[in-house]
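Researcher: Here's the sequence for the chain we discussed earlier.
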Amino acid sequence: MERILFRIKITGPRPEEVSASILAEIITRIEAAVVAFLKQAGLNLPADSPLLSLVEVAEGSPNDVLTFSSLELAIPAVSVISSAIASEKYFALPSDTHRELYNISEKVRRNGWGLEVLPNPSAGIAAAAITPDRGVPPLPEHSIMRGTTTLLARCLRVGGATSPRVEVRPIQGGKALNLDVTEELAKQLGRRLYSDVFLHGTASWDASSWELVGFKVESVSDFDRISPAETFRELAAKSKNTWDDVDAVEFVKSLRGEE
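Model: Thanks. This is the structure I predict for it:
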């Protein structure tokens, strides 16, 4: 599978002034921003090859240049991200990608540094810069909508070294969610591992894409699968004689606005 190189430069500090932990955090968040973009696009990430790998750190005063090797499928994400930073227009980015870029921006700017994406015209990667005076803005608060709802999801993992957390994947699609829960809810979900469950609580959505970005679990209940035939029998029983005098063909025509 073809790989393509792109470069990011940390501007401002001398190489010895950038700690290993800060460098690792920046690299991790760059990868997380790209992964979030690809997952939002519905792409399956290969398990047999790293999406991004750091192949060189060129030390030269006063800048560090990080050279990444990327799978070709990730390059469009890097291209859109670089264009968003260059134009300061972030509306096309998934919320998780925007959030990771904001965190990178705040990390380097708090230290008085900058970060540049070096251009690669053949890959569609634009020159872009985060500077101490020009950072990535946070997600607008009004772009997040919240409301109570019930989420049908598969329970994938329960654990947490210091506080209980669960990983669930919504049945209707989308990325897996890692959620904080109480100890009691963790115990309940632990008994439902690898099962489909109803999670009742408060959801947060990205208003621009309706992507589910968070969920506060308040209670859990079992999901019992029933056959389509049984579902229709229950609907018929509940509706009683409501539809007895309705012509199905004429009803559908009226919904479509047909004469």
